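Hi V.,

Quick status before I head out on leave. The structure for the redesign project is tokenized and pasted below; the design run finished overnight.
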């Protein structure tokens, strides 16, 4: 049976509104699976279900649309947080136990990973034990989901799930974090410990031949949470954008540092991830603040005349990628 996968990938530093896009696309009913392919409870994915705000951390957002949802090989999973989240989400998805699966070779986050992180790591992480869990994985001393008794009933082999399925398989891959938080392509060391780009999908048990469309998600400005220096604090318009855009972390509540869109970075992330479409979220925030600035292709800050010239500039930066501008809900 044919397998086809599409992916939603963050083009900036996370919090671009990926979950909103995933939820909207899945509501059209064209997918059988939703796959989280990297990260763990460091993510905070916010969607609105009948006007109610729902935040997922380790379980794919797709479960809220009743789609079979897989926590993939590239993820790390905290068992207690997983069960807490299952219970929290069961309010919206009563049959959640039938929908969620965990790759047998997904690694486990232990309490000692969180303790270790609190002791050693000073880059402004989400304190979910992510770095130490991946370190142990690569040290080949980690535990995997298949080793945990209480997870047995959720375990799957992604290869079997996708390639030995009696029905056609249509997978929407839900990226967590984003390309500039990637362990290799991000702002090292102010990044996360997983692979957040398209390459990661292949390592989750999907052949590159079966990946079709990559949809990049960006914001019309950038935000970053962590200890790296990102925002020009003397520029009051940036504070205003952060305020109007309600830029506070969904996992830690921290204020996100805010900066203008960097086109040089956007060009690179669209190119390296092969994005055929990029959704530029939160255009309305720039409209409300009345600032149409961006860093151009040479990294110079330029001030464009109006909304149309802003859109035009972004479009001509990435001529091979379709661009759709989109507006709030604000907290993403
Ligand atoms: P960690 O992933 O918790 O190790 O954090 C590493 C860096 O990635 C920190 O700067 C975090 O704030 C950032 N980060 C991790 N996950 C997310 C996310 O889902 N959205 C935004 N930033 C994130
Ligand atoms: Mg988030």
């Amino acid at each position: 049976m044919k397998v086809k996968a599409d992916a939603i990938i963050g083009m900036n530093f996370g919090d671009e509104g990926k979950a909103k896009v995933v939820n909207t696309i899945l509501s059209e009913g064209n997918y059988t699976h939703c796959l989280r392919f990297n990260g763990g409870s460091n993510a905070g994915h916010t969607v609105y279900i009948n006007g109610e705000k729902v935040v997922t951390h380790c379980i794919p957002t797709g479960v809220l649309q009743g789609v079979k949802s897989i926590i993939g090989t590239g993820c790390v999973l905290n068992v207690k947080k997983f069960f807490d989240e299952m219970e929290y989400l069961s309010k919206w998805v009563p049959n959640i136990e039938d929908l969620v699966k965990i790759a047998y070779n997904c690694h486990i986050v232990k309490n000692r990973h969180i303790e270790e992180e609190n002791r050693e790591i000073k880059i402004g992480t989400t304190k979910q034990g992510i770095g130490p869990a991946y370190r142990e994985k690569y040290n080949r001393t980690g535990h995997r989901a298949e080793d945990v008794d209480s997870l047995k009933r959720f375990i799957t082999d992604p290869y079997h799930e996708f390639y030995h399925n009696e029905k056609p398989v249509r997978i929407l891959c839900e990226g967590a974090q984003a390309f500039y938080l990637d362990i290799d392509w991000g702002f090292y060391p102010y990044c996360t410990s997983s692979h957040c780009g398209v390459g990661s999908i292949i390592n989750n048990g999907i052949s590159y031949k079966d990946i079709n469309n990559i949809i990049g998600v960006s914001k019309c400005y950038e935000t970053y949470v962590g200890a790296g220096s990102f925002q020009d604090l003397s520029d009051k318009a940036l504070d205003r954008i952060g305020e109007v855009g309600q830029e506070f972390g969904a996992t830690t509540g921290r204020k996100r540092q805010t900066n203008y869109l960097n086109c040089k970075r956007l060009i690179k992330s669209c190119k390296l991830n092969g994005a055929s479409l990029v959704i530029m979220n939160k255009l309305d925030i720039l409209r409300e603040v009345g600032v149409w600035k961006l860093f151009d292709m040479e990294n110079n800050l330029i001030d464009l005349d109006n909304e149309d010239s802003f859109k035009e500039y972004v479009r001509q930066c990435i001529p091979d990628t379709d661009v759709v501008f989109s507006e709030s809900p604000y907290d993403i």
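Above is the designed sequence. Residues 81 and 214 are 30 Å apart (CA to CA).

G. will cover questions while I'm gone.

Best,
W.
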